[in-house]
Amino acid sequence: MQVTITAVGPDNRGLADPIVHYVTGVGANIHEIQMYDHDSERLFAMFLRLDWPADVEPIPVLRERIMQIGTQKGLTLRVWARDEQNRLPRIAICTTYRSEPAEAVLNAIKEGVIQAQPVVIIGNRDRCQSLAEKHNLDFHNIGDERGNPDNTEMVNLFDSYDVDYVLLARYMRVLPPNICWSFAGGRIINLHHGLLPSFPGFQPYEDAFSHNMLTFGATIHFIIPELDAGNQIIHQNAFAVSPGTPLKEIKRIGETQHEPECLVEGVRRVIDREVELHFHRVVGIEPI
């Protein structure tokens, strides 16, 4: 069974060894291991993707042993296996202002296009609270009066709702590295309202328009700590406009039609396991 283990905490010596020794001692086959040691931040982070012998030691036992190591070493550890429980993947949707992408995903779930269960909407603004109420979902505003998010509360909500995937549906804040590492390995999906890598940043429509582009689009990609969306693209699509089309009309098409459609397809690909993230690169998965 494929399992991912993440470890985040204050940097120190000998943090990785007990985790690696334990899982290999039980008989796990490690497919991927990445470590991050940032001196200026004094932050240690590690990600493991492995094939776990669940017939030898059940996942709950693995989790308990890993948590014991975390307590001993002062690390926050998470053990995640999508196949651990026989249920649909649970999704947390994070938003700021625009509700159209999130609603498109919720409608696709209701229609059976995406085989997942939405469990909570989290916003750094209140704008999408009515969307949560419409779909009978809990809503949590983690932002202050300026929209600055409480990232600790965000992680607590992910854990309390037992989230499998985090969907950033026009969530207009950058996740800090510790959150990216905590849910590493293709568990955080982001909608960027522009074509990457050409138009990053917070105003891709305006940037493309200023370059006299006639093609605009959206990009769905996995989030990684380094903020590099070069090899993490899940799905990307574009739409063309006629010369002279006003920026306002371009944004209307993109925000109300194109972005939602693009996001639905990207999320579907992940949920249907057509793609995964290996070594910070999106790879296609052959059907079994």
Describe the structure.
The protein has 288 residues and is an alpha/beta fold. The protein folds into 2 domains: 2-80, Alpha-Beta Plaits (2-Layer Sandwich), CATH 3.30.70.260; 90-284, Formyl transferase, N-terminal domain (Rossmann fold, 3-Layer(aba) Sandwich), CATH 3.40.50.170. The protein is built from 8 helices and 13 strands. Helix 3 (100-110) packs parallel to helix 8 (247-271). The two termini are 14 Å apart. This is Formyltetrahydrofolate deformylase. It is an enzyme of class 3 (hydrolase). It holds the Pfam family Formyl_trans_N. Keywords: Hydrolase, One-carbon metabolism.
Write the layout of secondary structure elements.
Blueprint: E1 2-10, H1 17-26, E2 29-38, E3 43-51, H2 59-73, E4 76-80, E5 90-95, H3 100-110, E6 117-123, H4 129-134, E7 138-141, H5 151-160, E8 165-168, H6 177-182, E9 188-192, H7 204-210, E10 215-222, E11 233-240, H8 247-271, E12 275-278, E13 281-284
Parallel strand pairs: 5-6, 5-8, 6-7, 8-9
Antiparallel strand pairs: 1-3, 1-4, 2-3, 9-10, 10-11, 12-13
Helix pairs in contact: 3-8
Number of helices: 8
Number of strands: 13
Instruction: Characterize the overall form.
Output: globular
- What is the CATH topology assignment of the largest domain? Rossmann fold
Structural class of the secondary elements? alpha/beta
Mean pLDDT: 94
What is the distance, rounded to the nearest whole angstrom, between the alpha carbons of the first and last residues? 14 Å
Q: Give the helix proportion (percent range).
A: 25-40%
* Helix-strand topology string: EHEEHEEHEHEHEHEHEEHEE
CATH top level label of the largest domain: Alpha Beta
**How does the major sheet shape up?**
7 strands, mixed
How many domains in all?
2
Task: Quote the beta fraction.
Answer: 25-35%
With strands numbered from the N-terminus, the spatial order across the biggest sheet is 7-6-5-8-9-10-11
The CATH architecture of the largest domain can be given as 3-Layer(aba) Sandwich
* Rg result: 20 Å
Q: For this structure, what is the CATH homologous superfamily of the largest domain?
A: Formyl transferase, N-terminal domain
Q: pLDDT below 50 for ≥5 consecutive residues: which ranges?
A: none
Protein name: Formyltetrahydrofolate deformylase
EC number: 3.5.1.10
Enzyme class: hydrolase
Keywords: Hydrolase, One-carbon metabolism
